[in-house]
Amino acid sequence: MVDLELDDGLAVITIDRPQARNAIAPETMDQLDSALDAAAGALTLVIRGAGDRAFVSGGDLKELAKLRTEEQAASMARRMRGVCDRIAAFPAPVIAALNGHALGGGAEVAVAADIRIAADDIRIGFNQVSLAIMPAWGGAERLAALVGRSQALLLAGSGTVLAAAEAQRVGLIERVLPRASFDEGWRAVAKSLTNRPAGEIKRVLGGVPPEEAIAAFARLWVADEHWAAADRVMSKSP
User: Where are the beta strands (DSSP E) in 113-201?
Assistant: First the structure.
């Protein structure tokens, strides 16, 4: 099951499949698509897993074992890669709140987000090679964009699983929080990004011509929100 919470501009998608450690099955892919549709217009999006053991433990092998031909495997990979592409292309900041381990396909979902925030006791790894396969949902390319081609090849090619602190050191995770304050912490970060400028900053960071970046700034400048904030600042000036 995939749940969606909407909270004053913040959308939180929770993958809740405790019987499979939040693994991704074909039905989960459909539910993620529906949740992304329903989250349209949110100023920040968070992807998380239910519980505290797994963010996403990968693909659901019991379900995916039914795929026995190259065509079926390619169709599944194309389907979930499309979901991850939608997460990456969401027009507002996207946070992966790593409440538990993110392994294999779970790591691929995590790197589709803009920012990864992890509890300090989680582990993350592109360990598909342990099943004699490779990342299929766009994760290898996104990993390389985060940590560099050589590091990505070393990590995914060997199937190395990293502790949270080491993943932060190599640039795979942006912030590590104590388990005791994790839920409060990721929500505070998400709320800090729940504003229109953050979405425009994400778009500009993705690469736009200078004039388009200037136009984005100008639109924000003339908006009522800017002038209300400016008036508050100026009213405090001596």
Answer: 115-119, 123-125, 161-163, 175-177
User: Is residue 31 pLDDT above 80, yes or no?
Assistant: yes
Q: Kind of pairing, strands 94-98 and 54-56? A: unpaired
| pLDDT beyond 90 at 141 | yes
Task: Show Cβ contacts of residue 147 under 8 Å, excluding neighbours closer than 6 positions.
Answer: 155, 170, 171, 172
Q: Compute the distance between CA of residue 157 and CA of residue 140 in angstroms, rounded to an integer.
A: 10
pTM higher than 0.85 for the full model? yes
194 in Cβ contact with 202 (< 8 Å): no
Question: Of 146, 128, 145, whose CA–CA distance to 137 is shortest?
Answer: 128
CB-based contact 138:105 (threshold 8 Å): no
151: confidence class by pLDDT, cuts 50, 70, 90? very high
Sign of CA dihedral 18, 77, 190, 1: negative
Question: Backbone phi, then psi, for 59, in 5-degree steps?
Answer: -80, 150
Distances (CA, A) of 150 to 64, 129, 145, 155, 170: 30, 17, 11, 9, 12
Given 3-state DSSP classes, what are the helix, strand and coil percentages for the chain, each rounded to the nearest 5? 55, 20, 30
